[in-house]
Amino acid sequence: MIGLLAKWLIRDSHRVEDPAVRRAYGQLCGLVGICLNGLLFAAKLFAGTVTGSIAITADAFNNLSDAGSSVVTLLGFRMAGRKPDPEHPFGHGRMEYISGLVVSALILLMGVELGKTSLGKIFSPEPVEFSVAALCILILSVCVKLYMYWYNHAIGKKIQSAAMTATGIDSLSDAVSTSVVLLAMVAGQWTDLPIDGWAGLLVSVFILYSACRAAMETLNPLLGQAPDQELVEGIQKLVMSHPEVCGIHDLVVHDYGPGRQMISLHAEVPADGNILELHDVIDSIEIELRQQMGCEAVIHMDPIVTDDAQTTQMRQTVAQLVQEVDPQATIHDFRMVTGSTHTNLIFDAVVPYGRKETNRQLAQEIANRVRELEGNYFAVVRVENSYVK
């Protein structure tokens, strides 16, 4: 159904890299979610009233919260699509993350309230009437929620939306929780235990879990998470496809919302090259990154010596030495300054986060290893961390 609606209602629906198309997908899924969750709420509320089941009623209000979440998601996509203005020069893309966080908070609140109600039902149980109509409604609800999980997950992956992916996870949790309610209603016909209350409590636990998981999906981009490894590799491959570039380092990705990345990096170029020609190459790379990957890029040129055999050999030696400290470590901005009594090796070492040692301790360890090299070498090293794997 979503696929057909997308073809009918979204112009150039295959161009998901277009922010307008992406926004249209989010709004379409939000509208479909509002309609389906609204219908499920009405049907389950009717079934819960007829049977007197707190678990079914709790599941109904869970669908109501999902409908409210779809409204917030819809508004979030609309606001995220607003153009940049003087107060927000990088656009409003992060509103999508904020809307996802609001959705998570609403789901969390609903889970807490339903948990309280379910506990009351456990301590003061009431009889639950079996109803074929209620049974059919619950079975239909499970099928609808599985469908909602499928299309939210698929489109979330297609347009790379954390909010849509979180909505899909929530739909899958709803399908599981409704299945629990269904089994509890059937099992309640053969026992006097307060199964209904326990099922309602279990539903609330599922709701709380999905809320926490959805919150993390949307909170991480707001806090500044590491960029997607596929994006990093794509940037590296594009930049290094130009033979004038010897290497890159200090890559930083700033995320201002889906499809709104700004990157900065240092590109190593031969020190003896023509500065105007190299500058033209760098400009071309920035244009390619914008056109092919949708990233606004700022590239700093770092000149390195490439025509001196001794410097090249020593750079390789020091790079191997640093990798003995950490296999993932790299070096850049390598220079040799030869004096009358010793030679300074000046460079930056990049190590991944998670080391037990401080950067100062790592710098000292690297300096000690350089001191052990044959010859009178001293390391002037600055250790920095990188989130890029």
- The succession of helices and strands, N to C, reads HHHHHHHHEEHEHEEHE
What's the overall geometry? elongated
CATH topology of the largest domain: Alpha-lytic protease prodomain-like
Indicate the CATH architecture of the largest domain.
Up-down Bundle
Protein model, in words:
This protein has 389 residues and is α/β, with parallel strands linked by helices. The chain folds into 3 domains: 2-223, Alpha-lytic protease prodomain-like; 228-303, Cation efflux protein, cytoplasmic domain (Alpha-Beta Plaits), CATH 3.30.70.1350; 308-389, Alpha-Beta Plaits. The protein is built from 11 helices and 6 strands. The chain has a 3-stranded mixed sheet with strand order 1-2-3, with helices on one face. The longest helix is centred in the first third of the chain and has 33 residues, at 19-51. The radius of gyration is 29 Å and the shape is elongated.
Task: Label this structure with key terms.
alpha/beta; elongated; 3-stranded mixed β-sheet; 62% helix; 389 residues; Alpha-Beta Plaits; 15% strand; Alpha-lytic protease prodomain-like; 3 domains
In short:
The chain has 389 residues and is α/β, with parallel strands linked by helices. It has helices at residues 2-9, 19-51, 54-80, 95-123, 132-159, 162-187, 195-223, 229-240, 275-293, 309-325, 359-371; strands spanning 247-255, 261-270, 295-304, 330-338, 343-352, 377-386.
Question: What's the SSE blueprint?
Answer:
Blueprint lengths: L1 H8 L9 H33 L2 H27 L14 H29 L8 H28 L2 H26 L7 H29 L5 H12 L6 E9 L5 E10 L4 H19 L1 E10 L4 H17 L4 E9 L4 E10 L6 H13 L5 E10 L3
Helix pairs in contact: 2-3, 2-5, 3-4, 3-6, 3-7, 4-6, 4-7, 5-6, 6-7, 8-9, 10-11
